[in-house]
Please model this.
Amino acid sequence: IEKAQQKIETNNYGIRENLLKYDEVMNEQREVIYAERRQVLNGENMRDVIVKMMNDIVENAVDMSVGDDQPAEKWDYRELNDLIRSVIPLDPILYSEDMKGMKKNQLKHILKEQAVKLYEAHEAQFPDPEKIREIERVILLKVIDNKWMAHIDDMEQLRQGIGLRSLGQKDPLTEYKFTGFDMFEELTNVIRRETVKTMLRVRVEKKVEREEVAKVTGTNKDNTAVKEPVKRKSA
Model:
């Protein structure tokens, strides 16, 4: 009985130790996400973060669709346009004779400059510069929170099913770490794309236009009399 008890305690210790190691993986990811959230909640200027996200999107798109030593006429322009323009609405990227001899890094530089100019033009639509800074923080925080909560659920499902991989002579903890890393990379990619896509589609509400529409439709609340409730006549 004593030996059985010792074996049970040893097994339980091993289980607890593995659980702690699983938790370490999530804790490392949580620290990264929470650090980003703190920046937003502290009211920091997120413009540079948004611009870096745009640059990363360009980098990834070019790396996925353009080979290192490929000549410009052989680049996959359809894939390149799909990857970039689904998030950043740049003009279509098409091959021309001017691009002959262009290198991959040159293409990245040109597209990054175009993306920044597009964002600057978007910023100019907001009369109050601080307004767009506030919008950046709100959107970034919302996207991070929504995607992080979904990621927590996905990681829990991974954790529950990871033990099956031991049947294939693989260490479940190692597999959990590698798969969790890939999932976190995808999380950051989704946050990046969703944030930039949303920011570039935010539009300024023009007060003058709203007032003109209100006058025509009769929905101007300032000029609309508030009806008082009907009073019953006393019998």
User: Anything to note?
Assistant: Residues 6-16, 207-235 have pLDDT under 50 and may be disordered. Helices lie at 2-41, 47-65, 77-85, 104-123, 129-161, 172-199, 207-217. The two ends are 91 Å apart (CA to CA).
